[in-house]
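FAQ
Q: What does a multi-component entry look like?
A: The components come first, one per line:
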Amino acid sequence: MAHDHPKAKPVSTDPACVGVIAEFQNSHDVLHAAQRVKDAGYTKWDVYSPFPLHGIDDIMQRPTVLPWNCAVGACVGLATAIILQWATNGFDYPIIVSGKEPFAFPASMPINFELTVLITAFTCFFSVILLSGLPRLYNPLLQNERFRQGVTDDKIVIAIDSTDAKFSRSKTADFLRSLHPSSVDEVMAVPEPTALPSGFALAAILLALFATVPPILIIRKRNTFVDVPRIHPVQDMDFQPKFKPQKVNEFFADKRTIRNPVTGTIARGDLETDVHYFEGLDSASTVAAIKNASFLDPAPNAAPVAPANPAAPAPAAPVDNTPYAKDFPPQVIDKLKVDGIKFVKRGQERFNIYCAACHGLEGAGDGLVARRATELEQPTWVKPLSIHDDGVVPQPVGKVFRTISHGIRKMPGYESQIMPEDRWAIIVYMKSLQRSRNASASDVPAAELEKLQATK
Amino acid sequence: MATAVVNPLDVTIETPGVRAPLVTGGHDYAAITEMVTRIPLDKRTPIGWWIAFIPSAIIAGMFFAAISYMICTGVGVMGNMSPVFWAWPIVNFVFWVGIGHAGTLISAILFLFRQNWRTSINRAAEAMTIFAVMTAGVFPAIHVGRIWVIYWVFPYPNQMAMWPNFKSPLCWDVFAISTYFTVSLLFWYLGMVPDLATLRDRAQGKIQQFAYGLLSLGWTGSATSWHRFEKAYTILAAISTPLVLSVHTVVSFDFAVSQLPGWHTTIFPPYFVAGAIFGGFAMVVCLLVPARAFFGLKDLVTLRHIENMNKIILATGSIVGYAYGMEFFVAWYSGNPYEGFTFVNRAFGPYSWAYWTMIFCNVVSPQIYWFKWARTSPLISFIVCTFVNIGMWFERFVIVITSLSRDFLPSSWGYYRPTQVDVMILIGSFGFFLTLFLLFCRFLPMVAMAEVKGVLPHPEHSAGKSGH
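Then the predicted structure of the entire assembly, as C-alpha cells:
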C-alpha cells in the first residue's frame, strides 16, 4: 500500500532498501501467507498479482470510497442534465414545439439518463486510477527484475514496505522466508532518473517556440490594418453566381441584365389610367404634366425631416406644384349618392381599422400606438399629426389621398392594404370628422338640433 | 449424448454436471501471457497483416477522399434528394452504431451474468465497438452539409443566443452516441490497463517500453488496486448495460418520434436493440474467425465461443424476424391505410428487392444455426455472419428509404438512387473500420489476459479436472 503513497518518507535504518518482496507460485499459498503477514502486525504491505485474487480482499480489508464517488457522480450528472435543459430550453430561450411545455420532464429523460451515465463513468474511471495511486511513472518495485517479470505474468508477490513501523531489513526478510515463498528479495531504492531523455529538452523548446507562433500571428493580424478583404475559407452563400439588375450581361445584345417586359405585357396598375380616382390628381393636367408632377411630388421619404415638435405643423414642401385634385372624383360622388350614410360608415370603419391605431378614433393624434410610444419615450417616434391640425384641414382631398396611398415622412403608405374606393371613403369620413370640430348650429339638421338642445 | 465419449478438446459438447473448459490446450498463465503478448511485441510485422492492412488503409483513404470531395463540393454529390433527404448517411450511421452493441453486450451484460466465456473475446469485441461507433459518428457529422459548424449541436453559450432543442430525438442522439463512445472507451481502456502493464514488463524496444509504460499508468497489480479495479469494473458494467440498451433506443426514436408511416411505431426501440445485437455479434464472428486463426488464438477463442455467439445470433435473428412480422400485423391491425400501404409497398413495391434481401439474410440464413454442425463450423459461421451483416445494412436501408420515398402524398413520391460518392463512402467506411481494427490487433493485447487468467482453473486443485 505504501507504494501507492510516493510521498511517504522512509523511516527504516537503511534508506537504500525500500522493502522486501516474496514471490509465490500460486494463489493458494499466497492467501495463507497474506493472512500471516497481517497477523504479524504489518500494515504497509500489499499483494501483487496478474489477476484479482479471490479471497484476498477479506484478508486485507481495505475498503474504498469508490462506489460513493460514483453515486456522487451520478447525482451531479443528473442535476447537470436537468439544469442544463431547464435553463436553456425552459428559461433562457423557451422553444415551444407542437404546443408542448418548453421544459417537460418526460422529454428530458433521455438526456438526464445519458448525462448521469456519462458523469458516473468519468467519476468511476478517475476514481479507480487515483485511488490506486496511479498514474505513477516511477516505482522502485518495477526496477526489481523478478518483480517486473513475474507480477504481470504468472507470479504472485507479497511486498512489505520499509516505511512500515515493524519493518526491519533482516527480520522482515526472515519472516517472509518462513512463509515458504519461492524466493525473497530486497528491493533497493534505485534513484529516480532525473535526467531527461536526450533530445527531450530540444524537442520541448522547439514545441514551446512553435506554440507561440499562432498567438503571435493572431496578435499581429489584429493590430495591422489591411485593405484587402479577409481570407474567406468558408464562403457559405456569400457569393452567388447570379445576375444583378445593374450589371453587364454579355448574353444579351444590349448587355443589360435587367430586361424590358415582353411587348403586350400589362403590369399591375397599368389599367388604372384615371388619375383623379387612382392618384388623387387633377385630371385636367396633361399626362406628361402628371408624369413630371409625380416626380416633383414631395415623396414621403425625400421630404425634410419632420419637426421634433410634433405640435408644430409640418413645414410645407418648398414649392409643391403637384396638381392635387380639389374635389372628390365623380365615382365617389356617385357612390355617395347611392349609398349615402352607408359610404361614410364604411369610411369610419376603415379609418378605425387603419388609422385610429395612431391617429386616435377622433383623429386627434392620440391613438393607442401613439400613447404607448410616448409612454415608453421612444426617441425615434414621431407623434402622428392631428387631422384637425391647421395645416391639414385645408388640404385638398387629392393630397390626403396621396398621403394615405404613399405615406408621408414617418407615416407609412397604405396603397397596398386599402382599396382606392375605401381610401376615398376614409377621406369622406375624415372630412366629416374635421367638419365636426368646426361646425356651426346651422350644419346640424333641425330635428337633431332640437333633440340636442333638449338634452342640454 | 449420454453415450458420447467426451473428447477433452471438443469444448462444444455439453456434458451434464461438467463445465467445459473456457480455454483449451491446457495452458497455464505464462502460456497465455506468451500467446497474447507475442502478437504486439513481435518485432517483425507478419506479412499477412500487411496483406490485410494495406488494402484496408487504401480503402480508408478513399473514404476520406470521398468525404473531402463531398464537403468541398456540397451534399449535392450524394444521392440525398427530394423526397429522400435522409438517405445513405443515416443508413450507414445506424448500421455502424448497431454493430457496436455486441461489444458492450459482451463486456457488460455477459459480465453481470457471470458468463466467464466472455473473457476471451471481450477485448476484441469492445475494440470493435469503439471503432464501429467512430465510423458511425462520421456520418451524422458529414451529412449536415456544413460540417464546419457541427459544434452547433452542442449546448454552449454563443452570440446567437441559440441552444439545441433538447426535446428533439436528434439532440438525444448526439448525447446518446457521444456518451456511448466515451463510456465504451473508458471501459475498454480501464480493462486494458493491467494487460498494458504486462506488455510494458515484457517489451524489449525503447519505444515499446515507453509507449506501453505510459499507457499502463504504472499499474503493478497490487491487491488494493485490483480491489478498486474490480469495483469500478462492476460499476461500469452496471451503467453500460442500460446505456447500450438506451443507445439504439434513442437511435430508433429518430424515426419513431416522427410521424412517417413505417417509422411511427412503438415496436422500434426493442426491435432496434435486438437488431443491433444481432448485427454486432455477426460482425464479431466475422472479425474473430479469421483473427483467431491468423494470430494463433484458437485455444483462447475456442469453437465454443463461436458456437455461443452463433446461438445468440440465432436468438436475436429470430427476434428480428418476429419484429418484421409484427410490423405487418400492427400495420394491418391499426387500420391506418398509410401504414398498411407502407408495408405492402416495402414487400412488393419498387424496393422489394431490398426487402427480400433483408428477409433472406436476416431471417432465413441464421436458421441454419439450429444445426450444430453449422454453429461449430468457422467457415459456415463466417459466411452466415457475412449474410447477416449485409442483411442488417439492408434492414436500415429498407426502413429509411422505403418510408421516405413514398409517404402520404403520391405527388411527391420518388425513387432514391445512391451516387458513386455514396457507394465510395460506404465501402470506405469498411476500410476505415478495418484499418483501426488491424492496428488494434497489431499493437494492443487482443485478449484480456488478466481476465482469462482470472477464470482459468487455479493450478493447485485443478490437475486433470476441468471447470472452475
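Q: Is there any commentary attached?
A: Sometimes. For this entry: Chain B is about 65% helix and 0% strand.
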